[in-house]
Structures are given as structure tokens and as C-alpha cells.
Amino acid sequence: MRARHRSAKPALSTGWPSGDRGLTALPGGATFSPADCHMLELQTPVQFVKGVGPGRARDLAAKNIHTVEDLLYTLPYRYEDRTRFCPVRELRPGEKTSVLVEVMSTGLTVTRKSRLKIFDLSARDKTGGVRCKWFHSEYLHRRKIFRRGQQVILYGKFEPAPYGAGSLQVINPEFEILDVDAEVSSQDSIEMGRIVPVYEAARGLGTRTLRRLIHTVLSELSDVPETLPPAILERHDLMDRRAALQESHFPSAETCREDLAARRTSALRRLIFEELFLLEVGIRWKRRLARNVRGMPFRIDPGLLRAAGDFLPFRPTRAQERVLNEMSEDMRRPNPMNRLLQGDVGCGKTVVALQAGAIAIENGAQAAFMAPTEILAEQHHHYARRLFDQSGYRVGLLTSGLKKAARRDLLEELSQGRLQLLIGTHALLEPDVAFRKLGLVIIDEQHRFGVRQRFNLMKKGAHPHTLVMTATPIPRTLSMTLYGDLDVSVIDEMPPNRRSVKTHLLDELKRSRAYRFIADQVRQGRQIYVLCPLIEESEKLDLRPARKIFEHLQGQVFPDFRVELLHGRLKNIEKDAIMKRFAAGHTDILVSTTVIEVGMDVANATVMLIEHAERFGLAQLHQLRGRVGRGPEPSYCLLMQGAGTIGPEAFQRLNCLRETTDGFVIAEKDLEIRGPGEFFGTRQSGLPTLRVADLLRDRRILETARREAATLVDNFESQESLVQWAAGLSSGWQARYGLVGVG
Q1: Is the pTM of this model over 0.70?
Q2: Alpha carbon of 396 to those of 393, 413, 465: distances in Å?
Q3: Taking 60 as the threshold, does the pLDDT of residue 615 lie above it?
Q4: Which superfamily is assigned to 2-77+199-223 in CATH?
């Protein structure tokens, strides 16, 4: 019985165009000739696999699959037990299940009000019938994907149908169509009678096509070189690489189904370990190289440390003092400091960073301080000038909006060393920004920048000390991987004047109460943020837009108060003017989108009302809440949920925010809900996208892999010995895991 997946397309031409007859370029600069493809190897370009060709190779390349090795590491996202399908009469409502049924009828219906097109399918097996509905899938009807009498596998969550007592329906199920003219019981069938892998479709390539391509590759592959040292394989009882790949794609009948679902099989454990081990080797080696670089050691004595704290208008917390001592120890060494400073919103990271800047300046060096937004850079500039007023340090501000003449004068002062601290945005990275003696680089809100931007700023000096800061707390286990080339400091104590923000979850029935509370706060001289997810109305989303809320509040609810609207489509000069008016107390209520997420520091703002709070991520909600509670008055965050019920995941987020203000507790919960793939983007972290491992699910394996990687790298006496080991890896893996400089 042959299977035909929903996204399968007619095969594209497999004739080689004239441009494909010579060498084929691969990522990393390697080349491959068609003459080399008599036997498949890991670095064989995927277009030379039987059944691919140039057309499908382009579709696979869109999914970053260029070689046979890339294809083999495209693992199934789930497995389907086709040794026995669940009979329809045994289906349990609410459970995800696969059934094998026969198509009885199909049809397309259009709803009256919204004109929504719904494709309906009726199917049954010997024990009963089911209904299927696909929304926004007119193509199923137009292309006549289903025909009466077809055998089809359906996978989805079956629920009681709203019409017809006892009947079940499934919405938008995955499906695979089986052709009835094929042999079902064949011993080598990869579609039926076994545990079958299910893959995410690549552009134009369905799961069945990928399944057959991978089966072909595993059948014809000549050799699979081992990536892990024999001692590690033996120590952790790991399968060899070839067997692990075979078993991960096509599990044997004895494989535990629960282990497959939880990614706990021996085969998957080996591939997960391999990926994390090679990643950690790359991180460890970069860290070792960084420690061997000659930097700019600073003179640090008790008198200088006292001077670095004398300008503070308050006594620092114990956590701030501890972190400053950690940085001081780094900066006195001959190797450059590379440190990550984590701390919750309002914990005092900026003060500690400016103290480090004072140490650099007292040693005759300059400091650069890069922030992600102009308003935040301006606030840092204002704060630094106020703190350094008695010290005589020259502090400059560089943003893209600076006039040409002022910019020219500023850069001249900088290059001659008359400017000791330069604060700015991405404008600091411009080629004409030249320091005379850059000794310290500070980067605020590191997750807003890419790793490359960090290194580009560091290149403006001779291996300067580097401090990167983030208000997004990251669990220690993960931060050691995400920022593996950095030492980590944590400010885990809030200043005594920092007020805890009381958080309340509200619905539409309590809106009038919320408005009365806001009015009372404004009459007491306080200021208010009203945060909205959208600027304008959307046909697809039933959300209250910022512009309509602003008009409603200004014209009807608070006509006697000063209300302004801020959003990202305004010109920078308009945004800056609105923010400055609010900061100066000339605006009572600021209706805004998330442009205020970072950079607004108004001590008089005591209420943050977030419309449609269920639409925001947990970390983002925590950042937004951090805009209030910056002064001595009690502060409040009002989470206004939209009309109707909210999903369980959204409720988890809102409930977590209501129960705690601890950023690390929130970060752990955010990781649990979203998973690490979304928690931090690989572009910012510089990590490769993990193909097999999951940093949250596989934390124990990660810790073991990190220990083994440290042992491997630290026991190599020279780079040459590590080169010899890395040479056994393919060029693609060397590039992927940061081992190019090694191999």
C-alpha cells in the first residue's frame, strides 16, 4: 500500500541543467562533483540523492538541508504506530490518535456571516464513522485531494461533534492518503505495519517524500564516521552514530512508544548528547582562546575602588558590591574581562556598569556604553553626567539623530582622548567612530543585539574589557551555554527604595473600576501607562487598538486629563518629544504600544494598565511591569484580559505574573511554557539552531556533555592536538559548532 501525503507535488525535472554538470558549491566553501556520487557519503550534496534532483534540492535548501548529513539530522517530530490503528469506536475524546479510515464523502461549506470556507470529510472504518473539518483549506476541494473509497490515515484530537449524539469530529487533522492498489504486508514497507516517522514538511516536500528520501539514504550510505571519542561512547553507554541515525528514523518494533514520544530512546539520547557535546566543545575552545588573549590590565587598589563609589548618591546593595568586586578582579588581570551581568528590572545594573567605567577612566582608558534605543541611551547619558558631575569625566552621547557638525566635533574629541565615556546606540558601530584608547565596552540589554555587533564594538579597541547586561534572567544551566564565552554575575537583590508592584488580573466587568482607580491616581499627581498590542484595528484579530483607546480615553473617559498616544510608526523626533513630555510630568496618561518596553524610567508613573494582556509573552509582561514602581509611591500593574475565555497557556502566564515579581522565577516559568527555542533567539546568542536537542528538556544531558567537553578541551595541551581531533569532523560540523578556528 503506497502513501501519498497532502503536500506532495508532481516531481520536478531531474535532468541536470548545464550549470549543474560541474562542481556543486556547498556551505563552507566545499565543492562536489556528480562524478563523486556513485556512493553516497555524508557530504554528498542532497541533489544527488535518488529522487531529488536540482528542483527538490532547492526546496530542501529552503529548510537548510544541503547535504546527506543535513538530511539525516532532520529527525521526525513524532512517530506513528502503524502496527495497530485505533478503531473508531475506541476513540477517547480529547486524546490525539491515529485512525485508518475509508473516505465516504467530501464537501465545501461557506458560513453565512464571515464567509469562512470549511472543507468537510466523512470517513469510517468497520466500527464507526468520524467527521473531519479543515478551515481555510479550499485547496483540498479545488484540487480534489480526497476521493470516495480512498484509505486515509488521520491524526488529531477527536472531540464530540456538536451535531449528532455520540459522533466524533476532528479539526484540521494531519493526514496521509494510502493507495489501495499496493501491497500492505511487504516486509520492507516503510509506510505500514511498523512505527512510522512523521516529518515536518519542507517547501513542496511532504512527510512521505522525506520518509522515502531518508530511507534511500540510509540504504545507500557508504560510511558514517564517528564524531565522539571512543572513551566517551563507552563511559556513557552510547550507540554508534550509524545505528543511532537508523534507529531514530526507523525504530524497531521493540522500541518503547512512550520513550519515543518523550525523546528518551537510546538512539535519540546518543544524537542529543552528540549535538550538545560538540556545541560545548566549540564554546569551551572559544573561552580558552579568549583567556589567552593579552588585554589591558588595570591598576585596582582600595583607594581606586573607594573613588569609584564616592560619586554614588546612595549606599550600594551587598549584591552590587559583590558584582563590582568580581569585575575588579577580572579587570586587574592581563586577559580581558568577558562578563555577563544579569539582574532584574530596577536592581541597579547601570550603576555598577558606570562604576566599572570609572575604574577604566581612572586608568587612563576610555569606555563605550551601547544601548538598544535612543531614549535609553539618553537616559544613561543623563544619569552618567549627573553621577560624574564632581569627577570631571567628559561624557558624550552619540545617536543617529545627532547633527553633522555636533557629530564631527564629538568624534574628534573621542579620537583625541578628551572624551572619556561615550554612550550611544548602534551609531557606535559606524566605521568613523574611533577611540584613542578603548579599555571597556558595556552593552545594555544584550539580547537586543547580535553577537557580531558585540564583537564589532570590541574591535574598536585592543582587546578591551567587556561587560554585557541583560534584564532577562536566564537559569544558570542555560546561561552557561547561551553565554558560554562569558563569566556570569548576578545582582539578586533590589535596592531598598524599590517598591514591589502589586499585580491584578481584570476582565471587562471591572474596567470601570480600573478607570476610577486611574482617575484617583492622576488626581494625586501620579502618571499612568496604558499599553496596547496594536496601533490600528485588524480584520484578523479582535483587539482594542491603541488609536481607538486613545480617542476613547481622551474624549470620553478622561477629558480633563492630559492624554497622549505613542507608537512605533511615529517619526523619531515625535516619539522623543512625547517621551520627554511624559518624563517631565507634562502628560498624565500615555497610551502606547510596546515601544516603552525598554528605556522609560519615570519615577512618578505608578500604574501600568495592559490591554489584552493574554496576547503578550511572560518575559515581555515582566519588562512592561518594570516601567512602574521606580519611585517611592505604591505602584500597580493591571492586566486587562480581552473579551471571552483565554487559553490555558495564557492563563499560566498571567497567573505567574500575578503571583511573583521574581524575575528568575518568571524566567523559569517562561522557559517551561515557551521552550528554549523561543525563549532566546539563536541570532542574538550566536548559537546554532539545535536540530535534535532541547535545552530545557535535555538539561541533564547538557550538564554531562558540558563536563565531557571541558575535560576534552582542557586536556589538549596545544591547538595542534585539538586540530587533529576536529579534523575528523566534516567541514559543515566544524562551521556549525564553532570549530572552524580549531580544525
Answers
A1: no
A2: 10, 9, 20
A3: yes
A4: 5' to 3' exonuclease, C-terminal subdomain (1.10.150.20)
